[in-house]
């Protein structure tokens, strides 16, 4: 008895967090009799086996929701609950789809937008990384360069020249079309070429040269048209009329084609039409007496068309008279008779005036 009491004292003092009931529990079949002078039956093997069975049953029950009241649980049961919760979390994490970071190679469509900004990503580069330049590396390079210069070892790899030593061969185009000539016609053409009867056919290079010449001529013609053929001086004309108030060099506007001056004129410059307005009547109404001369025509004040008026006739006769006087004075037959004849002619002209 003393020995058992000492063991209990040791367990309670040294291990305050563990109890006997946590490891050894009484079974239902076991009967413990506590009485004065009674003995206690202990079966260690049976108790251990029953404890294992009870723990397994409790673990199966605790797989569901956690216990609400944890005050009556022992520390071992609490640890079991924590382990069970951790196992549940790990199972959920393994069953749930992993994040895009853990999937390895990820494309832009398989990850959320702007999610790569918060993560340090590793990129594969095909370029060889540059060596880290230190003082030792630079010193070794300088020593190597100085040594080669002193010894005269200039054995660097020379770049091969890209110039061709030989002229490139002319690549002849193969004509895959079936020839329209027969074999006899081919022999005939060859015989004519050898004897010099027929002119030699143009090669491909000659045809290209002719085509290039034609294109160059067309371009030159268009350029000359743009400059309006002012590249050459104008030919000198002997009977050339001199116009005043004309610029010395009249340059035309740039046009895509050569255009003559007649085509550059406006329609108003080609044909000018005189517009003669008819005599309009007065706005107010005229009386019958005032309208008669306008209908019949004012014979006194107006003259017929084609006949000059009296004043014009006098003017014409006066001019003729002066002309005759001048002629008679200068080219008269006699010196004395010339003035008399001029005076008589003047008098006759005045007499004939209406």
UniProtKB/TrEMBL annotation:
Residues 53-71 have a biased composition (Acidic residues). Keywords: Nucleus, Ribonucleoprotein, Ribosome biogenesis, rRNA processing. It is found in: Nucleus, Nucleolus. Residues 53-75, 286-312 are annotated as: Disordered. InterPro entries: Mpp10. GO terms for cellular component: Mpp10 complex; sno(s)RNA-containing ribonucleoprotein complex. One of its GO terms (biological process) is rRNA processing. Residues 287-301 have a biased composition (Basic and acidic residues). Belongs to the MPP10 family. This is Predicted protein.
